[in-house]
Amino acid sequence: MAQTLCYKILSSHLAEGRLEKGEPIGIRIDQTLTQDATGTMCYLEFESMGIDKVRNELAVSYVDHNTVQVGFENFDDHEYLRTVAAKKGVVYSRAGNGICHQVQLERFALPGKTLLGSDSHTPTQGGIGEIAIGAGGLDVALAMAGRPFKLICPKVVGIRLVGRLGRGVAAKDIILKVLERFGVKGNVNSVFEYFGPGTAGLTVPERATICNMGAECGVTFSIFPSDDETYAFLKAHDRQDGFIPLCADEGAEYDEVFEIDLCALRPMAALPHSPGNIAPVSSLAGMPVNQVLIGSCTNSSYMDLKKVAAILDGHTVAPDVSLAIAPGSREVLEMISRDGTLATLVRSGARILESACGFCIGNHQSPGTDGVSLRTSNRNFEGRSGTKSAKLYLVSPETAAVSAIRGVVTDPFENVPYESIPLPEHYIHDDGMFIFPPEDPSSVEVLRGPNIGEPPMNTAVADRLCGDATIKVGDKITTDHIMPAGSRLKYRSNIPVYSTFVFEGVDSGFASRALERKKSGAACFIIAGASYGQGSSREHAAICPMYLGVKAVVAKSIERIHQANLCNFGILPLVFDNPEDYDGIDQGDVLEIDDVHESIGSGRFVLADMTKGLRIPLTLFATGEQKRMLLAGGRLNMVGEV
Ligand code: MIC
Ligand code: SF4
């Protein structure tokens, strides 16, 4: 039978289950990646498994998120990551080498391989024809231990591209169009497979931009075929040996097809406060802008910055705009330094930032009060920038650059000084900022600063949970709402401290309220609307609530990575059978669940709201393995199974 590209790679890596839509399957993982903010927990978890050396083909540990280093914590974390990598056979990418997804694309990603990464934008590597999936740190630790990664065999949405992008229209506009169609919820257990004649006109970095933001739709991964463009990109990095051509079979059938005519596409933007809130840039034209930030794992490639420089050349940034640019990697920075692009950027007044996540995760460059910030990154959740009242618009580098010069949002369609910019024939590359693990790690001492604690353990779940609706939240609660990053990031390795910030921006009293309940032996319940836990892969959004005594999340729907993280740490992810039952529960209501053990087995729960006298049916959507984890109080309690 004719197969999609997605199913071809899945079948060549199938380790468990049947390759049928909706079935739980396990796949072999060739490569893993971690970044520092999720990495410390991940390697602590890996160490707790008692395995000497990683068992997959390649494991890379990047330092790109926590590079601000105010206080000793970040530096200590980096030292832990450097030494544990050497001990366990992991390649270490030092701070300064660049953003994990950009560097992985340049140096390691290969068509036909599988990659699991402890970052939700891991699917960026789909741009090279790799199945690349984001997951919590514990799942990545299990993959490093050689265990198959468990997922639901996905529905494949074919995205057919026809035509060519017009002048000033970018890959970013394609994915914003996809976001307009599919939104940020309701796409769990689906993947996007790009095909059609329009794919040939897109370079690998452009394809990577598109796959990067599939994460915002909540799909498991996105993928492009591997073709002449893929070969050209690999060859330009002297990595053509890893090339294999790959595409869907003739006549392969998709579960659904969405077609985009690239000729008709116009520049798009995601409006505050969701990447799914899409409008054409032309509808925003003339709106004054305070800040423009170019960078992040979505749009910080050499090609992106060449286009930006071509637009900025000969201009100065508008007087009331602050423009800052973060090249995605050391390779990009070296390329733009050597060919003069950097001088053009500097001459225009751009502030050059470190090759790191930086502004994207709210580490710095927070906008002013009520500020309008145009960004080429992928998330514009309220407060993520560090300024709650700021309004973030996600746009292409082209829209960002023309608007930076004019000081108001400006449509770049037919408004850029070049037709197209070709891929360089050769990229300068230098692996000097990677530390490759020694053959014999016996003399390596793993360094642990005082900020680094053990991963906390949960207790096996009780058969009866009694407590209250400790917090009630609405729809589309992101992991940034649950577990803020930005200035709080440095506590990622210190769960007791980091936990004090759970739901900080939503309800600052939550953490202390939850701890009080925990001390009195009561269970905390989180009541939520649709698409709970969307956004990042950070397992801290499960670990810290677990630490505070949360036993169950009861929601209209829960996003894939977060659902898996909740199971991994022994929090019940329960979904309302009737979404309107959400309305009947108020924060503070006394809640009970009886027969928890039996209910985990059957997947059928009844939540009693004692305050209102309601009995509310709930379902647990979990695999057999996840059910065993929930009974045990989390994966780390399943001795002998990791
Ligand atoms: C993000 O973009 O939200 C992050 C920060 O990269 C997260 C990972 C984290 O929270 O450490 C992600 O995307 O998974
Ligand atoms: Fe880093 Fe931002 Fe990409 Fe997350 S989305 S990996 S914070 S650049």
Structural class: alpha/beta
Number of helices: 21
Beta-strand portion reads: 15-25%
Contiguous low-pLDDT stretches (5 residues minimum) are none
Q: What level of helicity do the residues show?
A: 25-40%
Taking all residues together, what is the mean pLDDT? 97
Oligomeric form: single chain
Bound molecules: alpha-methylisocitric acid, iron/sulfur cluster
Main beta-sheet annotation = 7 strands, mixed, barrel
Physical arrangement of strands within the biggest beta sheet: 21-22-23-24-27-26-25
- The whole-angstrom Rg is 24 Å
What would you call the shape? Answer: globular
Structure description:
This protein is an alpha/beta fold and 642 residues long. Helices cover 28% and strands 19% of the residues. The strands form six sheets. The chain has a seven-stranded mixed beta barrel with strand order 21-22-23-24-27-26-25, surrounded by four helices. A six-stranded mixed beta sheet has the order 7-6-3-4-5-20, with helices on one face. The chain has a five-stranded parallel beta sheet with strand order 17-16-15-18-19, covered by helices on one side. It is globular, with a radius of gyration of 24 Å. Bound molecules: alpha-methylisocitric acid and iron/sulfur cluster.
